[in-house]
Amino acid sequence: MADLTSSSTDNHLRYLDSARGIAALMVFVSHFIDRGYHDAPATKYVFLIFNGNDAVSFFFVLSGFVLSYKYMVLNRELDVKKFFVSRIFRLFPAYFITVVLNTLMQLRGEMGFQRMVEVFLLNKTGFWEEALLLRFHNNYYFPGWTLSIEMLCSFLMPFFMIIAMKDRRAIVWLFFVLIIIGNSIFYSSHFIMGLIVSCYYVAITNDSIKKTKWFRYRYFILPLAAVLFSIRRIDMISPLGKTYKYLADYASIDLFLYTGIASFVFLVAILQSKKAQRFLSNRPMVFLGKISFSIYLLHTFAINIVYLFIKPNLKVPGILLNNSLMFICYIAITILMAMAMHKYVEIPFISMGRRVAGKMKPSLVFRNEK
Description:
The protein is mainly alpha-helical and 370 residues long. It is built from 19 helices and two strands. Helix content is 73%, strand content 1%.
């Protein structure tokens, strides 16, 4: 997902990387729990806190903000072609390696020459569609659908920003139009919510906002946002009812819209709160945020390592101790792999993307003059 590690975004707002790290941690924990305790009655209540499935809404809203921040807030020049190139270098290399690792993991019992030819040369299982982020193929790496959306919406973001540069009110109207059309269009409404935060960043972070009714009602709005963020999990525990489902289906509104709105509220709250920013700026949070993209990519591979290779060989008494050791191994494997991926893949390819983009001739160039 998008981050703020680029040297071009001074006033880095690195605490938002830490916020993304917390969302990645929610995914990290929830997928481990889901793998071993999917059918346990208490699991659905645990997921109210470790709501990993809906953390992707926060990723998307945050990406919309981060991708537009330096153009809408810092007024940097937007070159559409250079934007695309930088984004591909940011997302694709680490994702490609992740797909290869997960593919080899799934094929571990059938690694013969003929099978390798079928998968990697003849493409009989759709490996290359998945590896190239095409058409939402997710045979080997199931969280890959989120990266497909991230890439697709990254290609749309420059055009959303151009609209916002002309008149920021137009992007608000576009958000409502997308809701009417249907929130399922690549979750672009989530990215637009992040862009809206960029458009109104000065007003959001100005002390004058404390005089508004929105700020006065924040202690009501934030708990409501917390409920909206967990609405899919709440629906699993206590269904919203046939009438609601009929109306929601009629209006083409899925529950991810609510989690996106909740994520929008959380992002605005973080930008307003100095206490939240100080907490997110502490060293462990910054470290977590720095490697959070690689954590997100690699955690499912680490789960497979734990369950396929470590669990069968654990010879310790008691389920609690056994599961605790598995979780510790899961943490260690994921963190070590994420650190390596960040250092040897993410950072070099981000730098390479900047160099390539820096050598390119200008294409479609826009600047926010407001």
